[in-house]
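Hi U.,

Before I forget, here's the chain from the pilot set. I'm dumping it here mostly so it's searchable later in email.
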Amino acid sequence: MLIRASRARLALGLALAALTSLLTLMIPGWVGRLSDEINGPAILLGAGMSGTLTQALLFVGLLVGRTVCGFLSSYALGTAAARTVTHLRQDLYNRFLYAPIAFHDRQPSAGLIAALTADAGFVEQSLNAALPAVAQHLPVILLGTLLAYLTNPTLTAMLIVVSVPFILIVGLAGQRVRWIAQQGQDVLAHAAVAGQEGLLGLRFIKGLGREGWAVKRFNELLDQLLDFKRRRVLWMSLLETALPLGAIIGVLTVAWLVRQQLADNTMTRAGFVTFVSYLAIIAASARPLLSAYTGVESMLGAADRLSRLTHELGAPEDVQAGKPLPLLCLHPDALTGGGAIAFHQVSFTFGGEATQPHEPFRGVRQLSLNLEAGEVVSITGHNGAGKSTVAQLLLRFYPPDQGSITLDGVSANLVALADWRRRFALVSRDPVIFGVSIFENLQLGRPTATMADIEQVAKAVGLHAFISSLPQGYQTQVGEAGVRLSAGQRQRIALARVFLQDPAVVVLDEATHSLDAESEALFWAALMAWKRNRTLIVISHQPIDGLPLTRVIHMAHGHILSNTVLRVDASPAAMMS
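Structure:
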């Protein structure tokens, strides 16, 4: 699949590599013929000069053609490798985003980033070096050995026998290099996690004066990585030492046999020159092929890690599978609309395993709940009570282990995931703000929103005046995770996105936990002015003062302890009264 987009370029590169190999293998024959002509009687008597010059010019053309084909082959194969790895990165990132949340619970984000950057980069680097080398030099060695055998079977057979121990050493070293590369990439991923955590928690670390601890943790992992690199260099040095030794032994063997054959007149001058030329070409191709082999083994080590990662990914979420929900009427003047939620004997445990007796329960048990459309519901309880689990089940981040959830009487299992999630909006205590402009952050709520739409919701949440005072207005870059904005401004951007999204149900999970009293009051005032007929689910430790709640639910240990109905009339008019 990944090769498909580059297969034409790859085929061209391989064809040019084959042509390069063919032209390379023609060189010894030309050298032998030129040697015979230069030392022949015609040249010695001063005749036949024009024919020799023609042969020499053709030989130069052969060299030029071989050089051009080699360049074009390397370029085609190199760009094919770059395209392949680009598609690999795109495919991985796509699969990461569409993977179930349970996968991301097991995999740290920094490790996934390391796979996208370091592992894929290592594959690209190895492919760039290995593809041209293997395509050009492996055929040269194989065909060159065959032609050398046809030229002089005895010498070639002896060289093959001498080469066998060195080939075995190369194979053993390659396997070790592959294992070392795999382990090194794993350590590099752990180092990326440690580095990311240290930088993300920089203020906390500085506040405690624990910079030394963070540096030590990161450096220990780098020391492990250095140890793996040292082992790789050790095996590479062994190969670099073994190759010249094998070459010396081969040369001495050839020299001894050539001396015997010349003494016996069983080898001609042209045969000698041709055989030595083949031998020189084979030797010249051996070193780059050896480097390519070790590069391929290193690449396979990184590829093994990527393979394990993609195996753990499993099947991606199919957000389009299922039926679309009926379009809900959410016009501001409408008095009725969707948003009725029901939990039917829902049970869920994080990890899908039964909790041990000594471990705190994480999930919900036999949860049954019916909420009318347009209600304002407060779900309270201590940490671990199951409040946030309800929110995550509503968004279908996890499937229930048992039971079912319905929206307006339609079971979640029957509805396309993308369509279901469009009916919900989640605002958490730490809103996600991307390092792009304010306009782009707001437009995430509705990609088709115009500037007029953006300004309208910004006014609704009380951000328009602040944004307009900035030199670049809505195009102002907010920095990584919105670091240039205050907590209240980040939360109001998240609320403005909800307004643009226009969902049927809004889930607020500790949404105002980090806001001061004034910012919190502005937040709730803006939300209630916009609410109309939508269902609001407010998750907090205690009920929020001043909200026109219709129901207060108290949870503990995954159960509903109390479900108190405060107001029966949940119509928009009642909500705004």
